Amino acid sequence: MSISDNVKRVRAAIAEAAVKSGRHPEDIFLVAAGKTKPAEMIRQAIAAGVDAVGENRVQEMLEKHAQGAYKESPLHFIGHLQSNKAGRIVGVCDLIESVGSAALLELIGKKAASSGLVQNVLLEVNIGREPQKSGFFPEQTEEMLELASKIEGIKVLGLMSVPPFSPEIDKICHFFDAMFNLYVDTRRKKYDNVSMDFLSMGMSDSYIDAILAGSNMVRIGTAIFGER
What is the residue extent of each domain of the chain? Predict the structure, then answer.
């Protein structure tokens, strides 16, 4: 199937899950995860109507950006972001989804403010408390939102998470539910520089369950572009 056909199929599945969860299909934001995919394939996904393109690697993203791969599409950074590379993508990305430390928050804010920008970000939550993954633990979320509210140059638009892998979807759904509850709790509180519009969770093998659990932003690679 073509990339266009794949996007249509994913959109249909998103629409069905959205309706089942009591929302409208247009409430779900579709990010095409373009890791390892060439600029031409990225352009095809954009032409097929994805809402944004997400990249995992800074150097790859900057190279494809220079090739004009993301014209007419918002660009997200969705991978692990190292502090020494964060400054290179401030102002290039419309949204940095994977801000998982206080140091990153402060660094991004400083870079953005010095450039006269406001950088939109999501806070990455390590919902499975996995030592090999970046992100805040759930109980640190309020503390990080308080910190973000005091940092010039950033705006927090919500939360993002990558739950632990499991062949048993019920175990993954447990983490999706926990993330949604955290999202709802944090939305009730008011902070400067924070709007809490998005809960980004769910990938090619789990996006339907993520939407049913409350996600409104999904990051889809394989189901759009095929196997890497």
Answer: 3-225
